[in-house]
Amino acid sequence: MNKPEPVNDRLEAALKKAEQVNAQKMEQLLSTRAGSGDRPRFARRRIGIMGGTFDPIHYGHLVAANTARFEFGMEAVILVPSGRPPHKEERVISDPEHRYRMALLATFSNPHFLVSRFEIDREGYSYTIDTVKHFKEIFGSEVALFFITGADAVLEIMTWKNVHELVTYCSFVAVSRPGFNLMHLNSNSEIDEKLLARTRLLEIPALAISSTDIRNRVAQNRPIQYLLPEKVEEYTRAFGVYK
Ligand code: NAP
Questions:
Q1: Gap between the terminal Cα atoms of the chain
Q2: Which residue ranges make up each domain of the chain?
Q3: Percent helix / strand / coil, the chain, rounded to 5
Q4: Residue of 49, 50, 53, 113 with the most ligand 1 atoms within 8 Å of its CB, for mutation
Q5: 47 forms bridges with which residues in the sheet?
Q6: What is the pTM of this model?
Q7: Whose CB among 23, 93, 107, 206 lies 3.0–4.6 Å from 63's, allowing a Cys bridge?
Q8: Ligand 1 atom having least distance to the Cα of 148
Q9: Which atom of ligand 1 is nearest to the CA of 54?
Q10: Ligand 1 within 6 A of 67 CB?
């Protein structure tokens, strides 16, 4: 019997392949013209931009991306791991390269899911306005963009940089875990009406899985199997990400 390849070598090979496939998916998305392919459900092409720390990415995020894509007829969902979030100075976040690589492994097999390095390659803080403007520029104004993220984050949206300009570039999909009162969003008088009109709410039972819980489990040597893709679990172990 041949000696099994060391885990890290196997993961590096899988990552190399995932990176190539990701680049091909992006090339294809950029070259697709409106109206080509299947008969579109909507007059304008729709693309989702999913922001989050993804520390680590788990099945809740993937189910949320898939549900949002289906419900709103998006051609693809681009996951954008945050680089240096302006509001997170107090918490230590894992190395962006780890978070990006785990997202690549998690999305590899889905032709409609991509990962972008845009925020992790940028200097300074990551602001959603810069990210959304970047994708607007590369896809063109005829593409409708949806910024997808956790409903907890959307509750704070009035504090985000240039939020009134941001709302002119995209709609928002606020995804919540069960138990989150979706009425919070509707009754939050601080969120102005223009923003609320551009925000859709989506309850995702699978979001009962949380990154915080996964990190705590690893630290306490409790199992994380079945909460996130196998390759991602393998990655956290091989690189000791949460130890
Ligand atoms: P976070 O700390 O990663 O998440 C906050 C909450 O939302 C957590 O409960 C998280 O669950 C959930 N969540 C996060 N991303 C999610 C996703 N894509 N799908 C489903 N649930 C998700 O996120 P954050 O740092 O608050 O920021 C979220 C996004 O908003 C990022 O893209 C960030 O850059 C953007 N943001 C922008 C500004 C600004 O422009 N000034 C300010 C704040 C946030 P898990 O822990 O399980 O992921």
A1: 33
A2: 9-26+42-239
A3: 45, 15, 40
A4: 53
A5: 76, 145
A6: 0.93
A7: 206
A8: 18
A9: 48
A10: no
